[in-house]
Amino acid sequence: MQSLCWTTRLLTRSLRQSLSTLAEPNVKTKPHLVSVVCGFPKDFLRSKYKLGKFGDDSWFKASTSLADVIGVADGVGGWRSYGIDPGDFSAFLMKTCERLVQCANFNPTRPVNLLAYSYCELLEHKKPILGSSTACVLILNRENSTVYSANIGDSGFIVVRKGEIVHRSEEQQHYFNTPFQLSLPPPGHGQNVLSDSPESADTLSFPVKNGDVILVATDGVFDNVPTKLLVETLTDVEGEQDPVKLQMCANSIALMARSLSFDSEFLSPFSINARRNNINAMGGKPDDITVVLATVAID
């Protein structure tokens, strides 16, 4: 009963955060994204509710007359053993990206610039924001109906059209379960910490069509939900512009990811990859979960 109570409370928090995005003003210049958010922290007993965060994961959405921009970041949880909150790093990156979208020099074809400038601000911050994070940012350029993406690490995106994945990000790993990441280690630890440059991000650009479904998510989703199941779920909302129906789909994906992550008998995508690396693994991978779901509307 106590577990059910906490799960209900967690879902209520998540829906409150997700549905709050529906009330945000949305620039209706053609084309545009209709987008919603849902997610869960891995440890909701420890995690505090905060807009833009699910545990160590962070996200943002922003709109201008030039573009719609969405992004996710996943703070590396290992820093907690050093007394560092991993969510601070990812939250700073995403909040700064959101602010930079509104700046006069924002380039709607260069998402890597958002990551680079945000990371630069983090490095120059008066109070050091220590830690590491993966990140994925997508920009829909209204002028040419083209999406520009920058992905560093194992967060990422897929684009579904007519029941098939037509575009997807490439996962960047140094080795199994060790993704590329932006970092700021404590003094004296730099030589022992992986730190990749924003310019090492995998970048793509591709045209989108009316009705395309875009899922941007952290590895808590991709490590636990099989691609086939994701595609089947996303196909149901192709062309959907009702944010409430999109929200229901995002909630479903987030709930699937969380349920499967704690299923010890499930052969998850993470376990399959582990076995390919000669690691005998079974079950899901408990993790923070962030889902940013969008459809392309070209009227």
UniProtKB/TrEMBL annotation:
Molecular function GO terms recorded: metal ion binding; protein serine/threonine phosphatase activity
Reactions it catalyzes: O-phospho-L-threonyl-[protein] + H2O = L-threonyl-[protein] + phosphate; O-phospho-L-seryl-[protein] + H2O = L-seryl-[protein] + phosphate
Domain PPM-type phosphatase span(s) in chain numbering: 37-296
Gene3D superfamilies: PPM-type phosphatase domain
Any one annotated GO CC term: mitochondrion
Keywords: Hydrolase, Magnesium, Manganese, Metal-binding, Protein phosphatase
Protein name in the entry: Protein phosphatase
Organism of provenance: Corethrella appendiculata
